[in-house]
Amino acid sequence: MDKYYVTQKRLDELKAELEQYKTERRREVADRLREAKDLGDLSENTAYDEARLEQERVEMRIVELEEMIKHAEIITHHKSDHVEIGSIVKVKKGAKSVEYEIVGSEEADPTANKISNESPLGRAFLGAKAGDKVTVITPSGPVHYQIEAIS
């Protein structure tokens, strides 16, 4: 299994979500199943079928969260001369400068300029140094970036 690169804050959020699923969500689904069983014939009981599907989704999410936590690697940012996970990269594209934070896929949020290390842009920036020119191949053609600063 691949590593999940996350900040300590995100890891704490995942652990809290797991705890909620193992306690509250399981209890809610168990209550729904019990109520649906009380309605009688299970062969034509849509409430029971829906509760079973919800139970399956809850259990799948628990497994997913456990795997993510098990394989989590905390992003520790330290000053570096090259781009790595946790770096904030100031790049120039044409006349426009933009800052991106390189994060793990679980924390990616392009609207907040947090790009995944697994995205084409993130992969292209990894290992680059200030002054380097980076080209990213996109469906509409190559896009060129100049690395201005790394923090």
Task: Set out the fold topology.
Blueprint: E1 4-6, H1 8-38, H2 46-70, E2 72-74, E3 88-93, E4 96-103, E5 114-116, H3 120-125, E6 133-138, E7 141-150
Parallel strand pairs: 1-2, 4-5
Antiparallel strand pairs: 3-4, 3-7, 6-7
Helix pairs in contact: 1-2
Give the number of domains.
2
Query: What name is given to the CATH topology of the largest domain?
Result: Helix Hairpins
Computed CA radius of gyration, to the nearest angstrom:
22 Å
Average pLDDT over all residues? 91
What topology, given as strand order, has the largest sheet? 5-4-3-7-6
Give the class-level CATH name of the largest domain: Mainly Alpha
Proportion of residues in helical segments: 40-55%
Low-confidence stretches: none
Would you tell me the structural class of the helices and strands? alpha/beta
Q: What's the N-to-C terminus distance?
A: 30 Å
Outline the biggest β-sheet. Answer: 5 strands, mixed
Tell how many strands the DSSP assignment holds.
7
